[in-house]
Design brief:
The chain is mainly alpha-helical and 353 residues long. The protein contains 15 helices and 5 strands. The strands form 2 sheets. The chain has a 3-stranded antiparallel beta sheet, with helices on one face. The protein has a two-stranded antiparallel sheet with strand order 4-5.
């Protein structure tokens, strides 16, 4: 048991170390001016995608359920936190405190939505669960696009028609402007904050996986009937994984909202495309492999930018890399080759000891 725990701890420390070393290298390159402003600008988005990939892997890889509405939780966290920051911009002058409160609000609201959606949805499984979670993501995005919120001396005003429907006084301010979203959110997100959020996400997910609750969740994934027969509360543990995943996605949404001057909800950032892209990170990194999700998210986010100079062939190379990663992770011959060589290295290492 001690040997097993040591092995788990060692694996977790390698994951943390990998993230820390990558952060130090990038910070050094940025400080010395060795990185272009374009590449420096996507450091926060990389952190966001890493958090999203790790949190989704908790549902897809550890719980074993296919969810396509992850972008919906990100959207909830983004807009709730941006709404708070916009309202409190002149009230709370301390940017760090305001951002911390916005982060807590975004995570809490996303967790609440995770519970509300999870209770009815997690009774489904397979394709049915995927379809319903996909519908949730699209509904959230469309609701945000028809919502108008303003504030004047009389308080908040709500409308689903247009700005004129708010019936505000002349001194009123529009906070949420339908399809135009929220403008003027404080840009408090930084690469360092994103790095801290990744470490927090890893700490939560890895500790959950290696805990008693995590083993119960994996037992449900492996055999639901057997897990239920030994007294494991299926609903409780499925809801736990789903809620934690939603809360972490909400945190990623907070980072996203505070990295832009204008926050809007469209198909590319909070819709079907975003959910599928995050799922691609999870699948290509290896379902259930947290470290693989991190690597896949970083590579597939950086790749289009690094290939920008090859404008005509950029997407072709990106597609080839996707196919190569898919084959390496899932092709039977590739798995056989990888196991053979990893087994050789492992035996060599044990011989040295």
């Amino acid at each position: 048991m001690l040997k097993k725990m040591n092995k788990t701890t060692k694996s977790n420390l390698i994951t943390y170390g990998m993230v820390v070393i990558a952060f130090i290298i990038m910070q050094t390159l940025i400080a010395t001016g060795s990185v272009s402003s374009l590449l420096e600008g996507i450091m926060v988005p990389i952190c966001i995608y890493v958090i999203m990939a790790v949190s989704l892997n908790l549902v897809v890889g550890i719980l074993g359920e296919l969810s396509l509405g992850h972008a919906g939780f990100m959207c909830v966290g983004a807009f709730s936190s941006a709404f708070f920051s916009k309202c409190m911009k002149d009230v709370i002058e301390n940017g760090a405190l305001r951002f911390l409160l916005a982060m807590l609000i975004g995570i809490a609201v996303a967790a609440v939505f995770g519970i509300i959606i999870g209770v009815p949805v997690l009774r489904l499984k397979g394709d049915y669960l995927a379809i319903v979670t996909l519908a949730f993501g699209e509904i959230i995005k469309n609701l945000v696009n028809v919502l108008f919120i303003g504030k004047d001396s009389n308080g908040f005003h709500f409308s689903t028609e247009d700005v004129m429907g708010l019936n505000m006084e002349p001194d009123g301010t529009v906070i949420v402007n339908g399809p135009q979203g929220i403008t003027g959110t404080p840009q408090d997100s930084t690469f360092f904050i994103g790095f801290i959020m990744i470490l927090i996400t890893l700490f939560i997910v890895l500790n959950l996986i290696n805990s008693r609750d995590g083993r119960a969740i994996m037992a449900i994934r492996d055999n639901r009937i057997a897990a239920e027969s030994v007294g494991i509360n299926i609903t409780k543990y499925k809801l736990m994984a789903f809620t934690v995943s939603a809360a972490l996605a909400g945190g990623a949404g907070v980072l996203y909202a505070h990295n832009l001057s204008t926050l809007t909800a469209n198909t590319n950032n909070f819709g079907y495309n975003q959910s599928i892209m995050i799922l691609v990170f999870v699948v290509l990194g290896g379902i259930g492999n947290i470290r693989g999700s991190i690597i896949a998210a970083v590579i597939l986010t950086l790749l289009p930018e690094l290939l920008r100079g090859l404008q005509d062939y950029r997407m072709l190379i990106y597609a080839i890399v996707l196919i190569a990663m898919m084959l390496f992770n899932w092709a039977p011959k590739a798995i056989e080759w990888r196991e053979k060589h990893l087994s050789f290295l492992r035996k060599k290492k044990e011989a040295v000891k």
